[in-house]
Structures are given as structure tokens and as C-alpha cells.
Automatic annotation (TrEMBL):
Keywords: Monooxygenase, Oxidoreductase. Residues 16-160 form the Flavin reductase like domain. Gene3D superfamilies: Electron Transport, Fmn-binding Protein, Chain A. The gene is npcB. The lineage of its organism: Bacteria, Bacillati, Actinomycetota, Actinomycetes, Kitasatosporales. GO terms for biological process: pyrimidine nucleobase catabolic process. The keyword Transit peptide does not apply. SUPFAM superfamilies: FMN-binding split barrel. PANTHER family: FLAVIN REDUCTASE, FMN REDUCTASE (NADH) RUTF. This is 4-nitrophenol 4-monooxygenase/4-nitrocatechol 2-monooxygenase, reductase component. It comes from Streptomyces chartreusis NRRL 3882. Its EC number is 1.14.13.166.
Amino acid sequence: MPADLLATPDLLRSVFRRHAAGVAVITARGDAGPVGFTATSLASVSAEPPLLSFGVGTGSSSWPAIAVAEHVGVHILGEHQQELAATFARSGADRFGPPTAWRDGPEGVPVLDGVLAWLVGRVVARVPAGDHRIVIAEVVRGDSTGTARPLLYHQGRFNRLRD
């Protein structure tokens, strides 16, 4: 059995590369227009009331808008949306320019078209967590009618679910 390693950022990254996660895009309306980023930290927190959470780095370009947004959008991506996930993960990308299809949704939140499901949530807390914040939002609207299979993130790559 190999020796255990001291906790480091590299150890944490290495372990979580082995954890398959669903892929979401978080959006908000900023002063200069829409913002968004790819997230794999999405979690359901509570059914009553309906709460969700996600992490966002305080150094990310989206953080200034997320830090003050009253509402956020959460989009669950399908396996056909690897390029969309990559666009929202890429620093400096024009995330809302073509070919990204989106519209103004409830509460003025940018809603992406063609996703498996989306939710709009009212931000109820931003909890400091190292170089990130854990954002907790209460769901106010959504749509779960998409029919594709989910997009996954594993070993540093976007993947498809296999039977």
C-alpha cells in the first residue's frame, strides 16, 4: 500500500480528477452584460426550501458579478455540449457571442438554449471557502424538459455517460 501524502493543492486536484462530476454553466447579469462559467461543484442542498450550491473562485472574471447578483442561472449540460462547456471554461472567451444561443430569462438572468435543464435561483448566501465562495441559492424558476444524456467531467476531460 502506498504511503499517504500530505495535503496539498496538487493532492486535492489529483483526487478530484478521479471523481466524475456533472457539468453545469452558471450565469448572471453583470453591469457590463452577462457573465458565466463552467462548474462541476454544483450540489443540491435542500428540497424544502429548494436550495442549491456551487463554488466560484474569487479570482475568476465572473466573480465580481456573482458577488452582487441577486439571481443566478444554473444550466445542466448535455453530452452534445462539450464545446459550450469548453467555451465557458476558457479564460478570455466571448462566452455569450455566437455560437452560444441564449436569452434573457426570469429575473433578467441569461438562460442558455438547448440545455438538459435550467434553474434560476435567488442568492441567499455567499460563504467564504479559501480562494472560493460557496454560493447558495433558492430556486425560483426552472425547466427540466431536456432529453439528451448528461455531460460529465472526469480526468481533466469532458466525457459521455456510457451504458
